[in-house]
Amino acid sequence: MTDSTGQAGRDAFGAASTADEVLAGIDLTGRTVMVTGGYSGLGLAASRALAAAGARVVVPARRPDVARGALAGIEGVEVEELDLADLDSVRAFSERFQRRHAAIDVLIAGAAIMACPETRVGPGWEAQFATNHLGHFALTQLLWPTLTAAGNARVVAVSSGYNSDWKIRWDDMQFAQGYDKWAAYGQSKLANILFARHLDGLGARSGVHAFSVNPGWIMTSLQRHLTVAEMTAAGWLDDDGTPKPELFKSPEQGAATVVWAATSHQLDDHGGAYCADCRITEGPPDSDEAASLWAVSTKLTGLDLIS
């Protein structure tokens, strides 16, 4: 999915850019964009900017009434119920969507939870891995016919700032042998990057490309499981509880790289790239991990619909 204006000058943006600035002059009329997590934080900022550029924006939401309230007054936005942690819900949503829409031009996989207390969902899956990765893996698999129908679709997986300490816990992916909320979060965000990398390799022949994004530090409801004392001790907040401006972007700034990855011509020949500040940046080194994670995800979800 790329813009229809050919304005190459719109590809060079810095950290302070907003989603509206990235999309200025780009006409997305007639394009369908799905944004999971599109009713709060940077997802809401992305939904607003994409709709303003003319896109039809579909926002799947675990709390559809809350989503409709947050998105009220934004033209061109649809809300549908979806719980990414429930594969039955993912299947039902995908079936409903495909009855109403022939194609999807961009899928932005942005919904996430972070550093939550140990929580089990589905068949005992760790909640962060299930929501942040497996739910989006299943959603992409089930929506594959509509992605390929677009002819030039993109999938954008919203990750975080890559840390070399992030690991896939291959021998205990569900943290059954001891839960660590930050290790579990890191695993899920590494999974987002590896997912996009492998998906791009599989999807290129069908005209589907995938990218992962580090949106930067943004203070949103994502931090709802953290206390003020914990964030202050980590150096995120000043002593009075104010987010440090040198660390945090606004949601509109965080959404800039998300919509850039969804539309920029600069990425046409760089499928699978990991992006930050509206640029391609360095992520995890190439290895067999992306293929291995794909195989495990296929086994866990029972879905192998992309080839």
Note the overall shape. Answer: globular
Give the fraction of residues assigned to helices. 25-40%
Q: Which sequence of SSEs, written as H and E, runs from N to C?
A: HEHEHEHEEEHHEHEEHEHEEH
Class computed from helices, strands and strand pairing = alpha/beta
Total helical elements:
10
Uncertain parts:
1-11
Which sheet architecture does the biggest sheet show? Answer: 8 strands, mixed
Write down how many β-strands occur, each being a DSSP E stretch of 2 or more residues.
Answer: 12
Furnish the topology, listing elements before pairings.
Elements: H1 19-23, E1 32-36, H2 41-52, E2 56-61, H3 64-71, E3 77-81, H4 87-100, E4 106-109, E5 120-121, E6 125-126, H5 127-142, H6 144-149, E7 153-158, H7 181-203, E8 208-214, E9 217-218, H8 228-233, E10 248-249, H9 251-263, E11 274-276, E12 279-281, H10 289-301
Parallel strand pairs: 1-2, 1-4, 2-3, 4-7, 7-8, 8-11, 9-10
Antiparallel strand pairs: 5-6, 11-12
Helix pairs in contact: 2-9, 4-5, 5-7, 7-10
Describe the structure.
- With 307 residues, the chain is α/β, with parallel strands linked by helices.
- Helix content is 38%, strand content 15%.
- It has 10 helices and 12 strands.
- The chain has an 8-stranded mixed sheet with strand order 3-2-1-4-7-8-11-12, sandwiched between helices. A two-stranded antiparallel ribbon has the order 5-6.
- The two termini are 20 Å apart.
